[in-house]
Sequence to fold (260 residues):
Amino acid sequence: MKILFKPMRRQTDASINPGNSGGALVNLRGELVGMNTAILAPSGGNVGIGFAIPTNMAMTIKDSLVKHGEVRRGLLGVTTQDLTPELMKAFNLSNKQGAAVSRIENNSPAEKAGLQPGDVIVAANGQAIKDSHDIRNIVGLLQVGDNVDIDYFRGNEKRTVTATISKPEQAQLIGDKLHPTLKGTVLKATQKDQIEGVVFSNIKANSYAARIGLQAGDVIVSANRYRVHNLDELKKAVNPSSPLLINIQRGDEGLFVVLQ
Fold:
């Protein structure tokens, strides 16, 4: 079994045998503290490091399943990274703990609340944020519609905002609404693990875009020599009545394509 080391797992030295996943992890007082999920055993037996989902996360998932019939994870719309001595010096920060905001998703609750790249989050709903794992864990336990109060530093000025967790929705655009040569395509903003830009999520086989070699998964990073990070910036860079020059990223390769 491949073990994913996620911060929202409790580590235990209690023996976990095959078939124990989903079973209770209890403390010496008989209190439920987690649900067993996996074991990392060098010998392949039951001796090793065990992992369990914390009770608060299991209960949050249970409540969502009972209420909605599915797990509805909310979205704040930030990408964060741990503070390093180099970042603290570059940001001129005196505090040594927090999560530095490196990216804000377009039209996300974080953007609407006024957060910006370079802000350093130090608390969420009254809980101190020591690193980027903490903010992910707190947001991961919130439901769509919940409010989260965020304390952060912008420079040396401490600020507080309230964001409302929203349902993750990926905006998309039908290609010919942008440019006539893109008929038969669907465009979406890229995900967090991709380069920032606009991705072709679907291209019909008989479309002009397919005939000139464009492929689903190609990421537009510039249009008419303007860098684009999202759909809004792409719309501003495109003139429907003129030829369209796009720079796309395909895996590790980049190329220019003219649509006319």
Notes: The radius of gyration is 23 Å.
